[in-house]
Design goal:
The complex is a heterodimer of chains A (479) and B (102). Chain A is built from 8 helices and 18 strands. By secondary structure, chain A is α+β, with helices and mostly antiparallel strands. In chain A, the strands form 5 sheets. A 4-stranded mixed sheet of chain A has the order 4-1-7-8, with no helix packed on it. In chain A, strands 3-2-5-6 form a 4-stranded antiparallel sheet, with no helix packed on it. Chain A has a 4-stranded mixed sheet with strand order 14-9-17-18, with no helix packed on it. In chain A, strand 7 and strand 8 form a beta hairpin. In chain A, helix 1 packs antiparallel against helix 2 and helix 2 packs antiparallel against helix 3. The longest helix of chain A is centred in the first third of the chain and has 26 residues. The N and C termini of chain A lie far apart (107 Å). The relative contact order of chain A is 0.08. The radius of gyration of chain B is 17 Å and the shape is elongated. The chains are: A alpha+beta (479), B mainly alpha (102). At the A-B interface, helix 1, helix 2, helix 3, helix 4 and helix 5 of A face helix 1, helix 2 and helix 3 of B.
Chain lengths: 479, 102
């Protein structure tokens, strides 16, 4: 039996026993005390349900404030024990017990028969998307997401990035769409072009699939040239634009290692990522192998640690789990069989545990104006950590408070109004019966004034007494 | 997700709710009846928190919070009623409070 199950059983039994004791005990004080025990155990159960804030509120408000109020009223009224004089409702006990048993069985028998509640699965987090511009062009491109069945999708599509410049990697952003198939479109937005979304300058239109609880990196590759013609900018697509989706499943990244993913968007040669080790050289040894036809030939075998190998253009390696540390990584291209050439040295490459590294080999556009043309470089040196909403923030005061102030502001206001009405109701209900002493005094005074001794005098004298009402002088009459 | 199935929490809340309902029906003391109502509200809160965890959303816990506030208002008004009744009739035995009987 796990600790949690043991705790649950202990608390559950304690809760049921204290609730039963509350009902059974003859003295209302004991009932209240048992109810406090019950509220305390339920508070601990809230803690088990990842609701720490609710648990604390339960103790402070329920077990604290409300129960103090109950005890106070019991003591005030001296109502610990009610005189059980009436015999009118004796039959009610049996009926109530039967009703309770019927209620419990009506709800629990189907529960047992169907083998649980068959609760629906949670919808999960919205899909997250990140874009990488790795195409051979200086021009910024605009990326939009269109299509799908989403009703509130804008006509021009969902703008993912207005100006994606070469070599940049956007932050992961949540895409507020239903999971499903969409079309990812990239546009060239030159200065002479219409604002955005013009159909003439679509560089790319690819179907992508977005799923909940998934993070994806879209690498946009291709080649484009901008020529000045009659004072206007024209663009020519030299090699087709493509989107490569890098797999990101952070669920299986270990705590003591990082995940490394290598992709080649630079050369047609096969690319390897090799850890050269401390000697700073590629260690190889030749081995003579015999193939199926009995011919002997030499084969080069790299004895250093190979992170990824055999990556042709546009190919992405499988994610490799790599322990934490500093490595002497080298991006090596196999220019000819058995001939290796370092493309990009990644000396003193830091690998931090719990992160994900995408090492993308892309052309270096900064060097394109030089004579050497495109030079390779490695994109995304930063190590990305993706933060999904973790269990720590779930049910925390901050989490609940933010919801109360944003989505649930109207219910909170209504509850506040209800409390105000309750306050007024309490004042009205417990107001002392009859007129207060002050108003009685006022009435008596008024009686003395309004009933002068006229009637008394007329009784004693037997004659009629007329009282002239005092004549009021009109202001400003001039008399 | 805890090792305890959500169904266990729901079943416990069911039992507590039934106990509260029995208390409402069986007891004669108005204050104890009132405490039983609180027990029922609390059982509903437990089920809400359990479903909130199952769904992975915070909404259920917000509901618990609002129910607690409503319960506090209800307790204040209810106890005021009991005090007013006691002042009039010197008793809070609900069997003796049947002046509205037709």
């Amino acid at each position: 039996m796990s600790l949690e199950l043991f705790l649950f059983l202990t608390l559950g039994i304690l809760a049921v026993v204290s609730a039963a004791a509350m009902i059974i005990s003859k003295n209302a004080i004991y009932s209240a005390l048992f109810l406090i025990v019950n509220f305390g155990t339920v508070a601990l159960l809230f803690l088990m349900l990842d609701a720490p804030f609710i648990s604390m509120v339960q103790i402070a408000v329920y077990a604290g404030a409300i129960m103090v109020l109950f005890l106070f009223v019991i003591m005030l009224l001296g109502a610990e024990q009610t005189t059980d004089t009436s015999r009118r409702f004796r039959w009610l006990a049996g009926v109530a017990t039967a009703l309770a048993a019927g209620f419990l069985s009506a709800l629990s028998i189907p529960l047992v028969l169907s083998g649980g509640l068959n609760l629906p699965e949670p919808p999960g987090e919205a899909p997250q998307v990140r874009l990488v511009h790795a195409a051979r062009t200086t021009a910024p491109i605009e990326v939009r997401l269109i299509g799908g069945t989403e009703q509130d999708m804008p006509e021009q599509g969902l703008l993912l990035e207005r100006e994606l410049t070469f070599g940049t990697t956007t932050e992961f952003q949540e895409v507020a769409v239903e999971p499903g198939d969409y079309i990812l479109q990239a546009f060239y937005t030159g200065q002479e072009q219409p604002a955005s979304g013009g159909q003439g300058n679509v560089l790319l239109s690819t179907r992508v699939t977005l799923a909940n609880d998934e993070v994806q990196t879209f690498v946009i590759t291709g080649e484009m040239e901008i020529v000045q013609e009659d004072g206007a900018e024209r663009f020519t697509v030299l090699s087709p634009f493509e989107v490569t989706s890098l797999p990101n499943s952070f669920a299986d990244s270990g705590s003591d290692s990082a995940r490394i993913l290598v992709a080649n968007f630079y050369t047609q040669d096969d690319v390897l990522l090799v850890d050269y080790g401390t000697d700073g050289e590629l260690s190889v040894r030749t081995e003579t192998v015999t193939d199926d036809e009995g011919n002997e030939r030499d084969e080069l075998i790299i004895t250093d640690t190979v992170v990824a190998s055999g990556l042709g253009y546009g190919e992405v390696s499988e994610p490799v789990s790599f322990p934490e540390g500093t490595y002497n990584l080298q991006m090596v291209a196999e220019v000819a069989p058995g001939e290796f050439e370092v493309v990009v040295p990644l000396d003193d490459w830091q690998v931090t545990s719990g992160t994900e590294q995408n090492i993308l080999l892309v052309p270096d556009y900064d060097a394109v104006q030089g004579e050497e043309g495109f030079r390779p470089r490695v994109l995304d040196r930063t190590q990305d950590e993706i933060t999904f909403r973790t269990a720590e923030s779930f049910g925390s005061p901050g989490d609940i408070g933010q919801q109360l102030f944003t989505r649930y502001l109207l219910p909170v206001n209504m509850v506040g109004f209800l409390l105000l009405v309750g306050l007024v109701g309490v004042i009205v209900l417990t107001r002392p019966q009859g007129p207060s002493t002050e108003s009685r005094a006022t009435r008596n005074r008024r009686r003395k004034v309004s009933r002068p001794l006229v009637s008394v005098i007329s009784q004693q004298t037997g004659g009629e007494v007329t009282v002239e009402p005092p004549k009021l002088q009109e202001p400003g009459s001039g008399d | 997700m805890t090792a305890v199935p959500i169904e266990a929490f729901v079943a416990l809340s069911l039992v507590l709710f039934t106990l509260g309902a029995m208390g409402v029906l069986l007891r004669k003391n108005a204050i104890v009846v009132f405490m039983s109502v609180e027990l029922m509200l609390n059982a509903a809160n437990l089920a809400l928190a359990a479903f909130s965890l199952q769904w992975g959303g915070i909404d259920g816990q917000i509901f618990v919070f609002i129910v607690m506030t409503v319960a506090a208002a209800e307790v204040a008004v209810g106890l005021a009623l009991i005090v007013a009744i006691f002042r009039n009739r010197q008793s809070i035995n609900i069997d003796e409070l049947h002046q509205m009987e037709g």
